[in-house]
Design goal:
The complex is a heterodimer of chains A (296) and B (302).
Chain A (H helix, E strand, L loop, with lengths): L1 H26 L1 H25 L3 H6 L10 H8 L3 H32 L5 H12 L7 H10 L6 H10 L1 H12 L5 H8 L4 H12 L1 H17 L2 H6 L9 H15 L2 H30 L7
Helix pairs in contact in A: 2-15, 4-15, 5-8, 5-9, 5-12, 5-14, 9-12, 10-11, 12-15, 14-15
Chain B lengths: L1 H33 L2 E2 L11 E2 L3 H8 L1 H32 L6 H9 L6 H12 L6 H8 L3 H5 L8 H26 L3 H9 L4 H29 L3 H6 L10 H9 L12 H25 L8
Antiparallel strand pairs in B: 1-2
The chains are: A mainly alpha (296), B mainly alpha (302).
Chain lengths: 296, 302
């Protein structure tokens, strides 16, 4: 019964709005033109890549895609040759482990910087802000020199540690989140005899769950798509290459052999993981870009 | 309890401060110092570094390729900035004007931002700009513009423009989201009363929206500028040979210190690579100062 009344009222508001809405939508027709063009472009580009990756190279050049049916062997070829399955695994390792580490170490720091009063607070926050403006190129020569000397370039853990170094972004994101969370519960827990650690992990961390999830999604996407550091520190052999670096190497060589169909399959192998993730999480991602506050 | 609290604060802050010192402070100081020395490769011990003072900076100033990379960077910043800021402003205005399916359009336009640059670059250069079966070729030839259909968009002459358009395509969504958030914050009654007073959409945009989002517009400009200074991935992926048309300072540094390929007559010198990193940092600091301190004006209240 309750459900029924709810439905009828929502219908009513819809009908009431629709006349006014219609007049407005007609006025807005020119505004839809750029949107529809963008949509058409995206659908055609992604659709064509998908079809081309399932055709033969001859069909791609002859402009009659999929004339001889579906050729999933392009994917098999791209996946099996050149260790792509291995690169895929590397990318999963590079993207997931730092995500966990960054939240584990970043969340308490963010909380402390957002909620606790102490002398150095302002100084630390300002230094982090200034530090984030330093271009990424700065770390290359100093750290490459050290890692080469220690023979650590071309090792899986090196890349994981490197990604964990950029913790200040996570701290900042969660700081904004913690500053909106009320502290009264934590104070009550402290009075009841909890240690600050227990109070943080059992109460405050749970209250910051939405922020933690959003920042983890962002970190994962960021590390999955990361190319700059991976090109320098994870490009020395098949044992370390990330998916993006490995596939770019492969694409560069495929261009010369002219195997375009497998090449498009390779592009889609880099493209699809984040695309599928985005299909499910776009609302959260879009909301997270502008400060993490989840609004309509 | 107070002691416990202090311990909690200190222990929580140790990891990020450690990362900050190791990953930001140390490289910056080392680059500044190393940029005054010369060394042929990365593994030369510090005792064999050769003091050259400001010679590395002087060499860079005299290198025509490096100076050209600055011009290229400036062109990317200016043309790309105009494209990105104006198109994202257009889309943000459209999406806050009450179109149906706002959420869907917003997600769609932000989509390229979440895709790996490797996939985007290859999609554009191997399909859309392909001069045999590419999308642009088909569009132009179906419109009867045979001359444009014949253009090879990825050759040396056109690669700068084609790369810039492809890059902006991915960047627009990000700026648009920031602008939409600002525009959603403007009270609707301002528009309604202006509408009743007879102001058309154009006047409402320039008299209400623009003044109230100047702050956000500057934020977008700061992001764009700081993002452009390190411009590297797209140039590196787009230029297959040692093309100079897309050379940026970061790519110049990569090529001359990591890639073992000389695009310049200068001898390989890691110290010079450090000098480039220092110059880029100074540019970032200057941009930060310029946009956030000098150009700061009063906020409108609403």
């Amino acid at each position: 019964m309750a459900l029924l009344t709810k439905e009828s009222t929502s219908k009513k508001t819809f009908r009431k709005l629709s006349k006014h809405e219609w007049a407005m939508q007609v006025r807005l027709i020119p505004a839809y033109i750029p949107l529809v063009l963008w949509l058409a472009f995206s659908v055609f580009a992604i659709g064509w890549l998908l079809l081309a990756s399932l055709s033969t190279s001859r069909e791609v050049f002859g402009d009659n895609l999929m004339a001889s049916g579906l050729h999933f062997e392009n994917y098999v070829k791209a996946w099996k040759s050149n260790n792509v399955s291995r690169y895929f695994l590397h990318s999963i390792i590079y993207s997931s482990i730092p995500c966990v580490v960054l939240v584990f170490f970043g969340a308490p720091a963010a909380y402390v910087l957002a909620k606790k009063e102490f002398k150095m607070r302002k100084f630390i926050v300002t230094s982090f802000i200034v530090g984030m403006a330093v271009p990424g190129t700065m770390v290359l020569i100093p750290w490459y020199s050290i890692l080469v000397k220690l023979d650590l370039v071309g090792k899986l853990p090196t890349m994981i540690v490197i990604y964990c170094m950029g913790i200040s972004g996570t701290v900042f994101f969660l700081m904004q989140f913690f500053s909106t969370v009320p502290t009264s519960l934590e104070e009550a827990a402290l009075i009841d005899g909890c240690t600050p650690y227990q109070a943080f992990w059992k109460i405050m961390f749970h209250m910051a769950q939405p922020g933690v999830i959003t920042v983890t999604i962002f970190n994962f996407l960021g590390f999955w798509n990361e190319y700059f550091l991976a090109l320098i520190f994870a490009n020395s052999g098949e044992n370390v290459r990330s998916l993006a670096v490995g596939l770019q190497n492969m694409i560069n060589s495929m261009r010369f052999t002219g195997d375009y169909a497998a090449l498009y399959a390779a592009i889609l192998i880099v493209f699809l993981p984040t695309f599928i993730l985005y299909l499910f999480l776009s609302d959260k991602i879009v909301a997270g870009v502008t400060g993490g506050a989840v609004k309509g | 309890m107070k002691k416990q609290n202090r311990r909690f604060i200190i222990l929580s802050l140790i990891p990020p401060i450690f990362c900050f010192l190791v990953w930001t402070v140390y490289p910056t100081l080392r680059c500044i110092i190393q940029s005054c020395f010369a060394m042929p490769n990365m593994t030369v011990p510090v005792s064999q570094w050769q003091w050259v003072g400001l010679q590395n900076y002087k060499d860079l100033y005299e290198s025509s390729v490096f100076m050209m990379s600055f011009t290229t960077l400036g062109k990317i910043w200016l043309y790309g900035g105009v494209i990105c800021l104006s198109v994202s402003l257009l889309f943000a205005t459209i999406l806050t004007s009450g179109v149906l399916g706002k959420k869907f359009w917003r997600s769609l336009i932000y989509l390229p931002n979440t895709i790996s640059a490797v996939a985007m670059v290859n999609m554009w250069s191997l399909y859309i700009y392909n001069n045999k079966f590419g999308m642009l070729k088909k569009i132009f030839s179906s419109l009867g513009m045979e001359k444009l259909a014949e253009v090879n968009w990825t050759d040396t002459e056109h690669m700068f423009g084609s790369m810039l358009v492809a890059y902006c395509f991915g960047y627009i969504g990000y700026l648009m989201l920031i602008m939409i958030a600002a525009m959603d914050g403007i009270p609707k009654d301002l528009y309604e009363s202006a509408f009743l007073d007879g102001a058309n959409a154009w006047v409402r945009f320039w008299r209400i929206t623009m003044p109230l989002i100047t702050e956000t517009f500057r934020t977008c400009l700061t992001y764009w500028t700081l993002g452009t200074i390190g411009f590297f991935i797209w140039s590196q992926l787009w230029s297959r040979s040692q093309d100079l048309a897309l050379m940026t300072p970061a790519l110049y540094m990569y090529n001359s210190t990591f890639a073992n390929s000389s695009t310049d007559v200068l001898v390989k010198n890691i110290g010079r690579g450090c000098a480039i990193a220092v110059i880029m940092m100074l540019m970032a600091m200057f941009a930060h100062l310029l946009f956030n301190v000098i150009l700061k004006e009063r906020k409108y209240e609403y």
